[in-house]
Amino acid sequence: MEELKRRYLQEFLLLSSSTVSLKEYVKVIKERQTRLRNCYAETIEMNSEDFVKMILLQGAPNDRLFSKPWMEVDVRYDMILLENQLPFFILEDLYDVSNIRNKLHHKGLSLLKLTHEQNFSQVDHILDFLRICQRPSNLHTESKHKLRKQSAWHAPSATQLHQAGVKFELGSTKNKFDIQFKNGILKIPRSRVTKRKEYFLRNLQAFEQCHCYDNKYISDYIAFITMLVRTPKDVEVLAQSGVMQNRLQNNDTLSTIYNYLGTGNFVSRNRFHFSDVATLKQDYFNTPWAGISIITAAIRLLLTLIQTVYSIIQTYR
Length: 317
Description:
Layout: H1 2-15, H2 22-31, H3 33-38, H4 48-59, H5 69-79, H6 88-98, H7 107-118, H8 126-133, H9 158-163, E1 167-170, E2 180-182, E3 185-188, E4 191-193, H10 195-211, H11 217-228, H12 232-240, E5 244-246, H13 251-262, H14 275-278, H15 280-284, H16 288-315
Helix pairs in contact: 1-4, 2-4, 2-6, 11-13, 12-13
């Protein structure tokens, strides 16, 4: 990779204006060296020259790897690792100095161009940028979605809801945060679960848990889904309604992953994005209709058991 980084730097310089020299890029990084070092939790034991060299090699993008599909996947995993992030401001500064706005043709610089167009002025790094791209359009205020009771945290599982008469339907939007509960119907946008998505969620979750105070919407989403998915049976219930598509080995694997994601996933009682939906246990289970639904389910189970016993008796008479 070190050799590839040198090639990237050379091609980045070739894309730049002929009036921009390597010394100018070095100067930009040196002027921001203190701020760069302060972005990292641990003290970076490097002298100034080596540090500047490292940042310059890391910050020069290229599409040599991205032009090879079999390598692109592996590189994507590395790029979204929380511990691999490079402060975004230095990428923007190098981009501005390069004067290559009209020569953009590969993904790395196109991403920088997109941030300028969208005015993401508070982006910390690439992973933060990806989190912002996931941001719900209806972020709540604290007063609007404060949880009413602690019991609301313990929402029932998908199996329990199904047995109580709640119906699951596939949401009409692709926005995974657009989860709605109304008239006994829980609408959830389709969730395709793959190893790649698990990896993506883990790193977004780690970033929010470490660095975000307000609106932990990724962590809130994980919390809500892990309330629903506790066992392989819960996965089956959601899959039957089309809400969940499991691309992993089996339902046991998926339920294990969600349970693991839920471990240590701290969310705020005053800023829980799905509090309106999470209170469905409190709102729905306490209604007369919910009681009737539970009684009906119990009667069906009893009748099924009686029929099974009767069949066994008839067989061995």
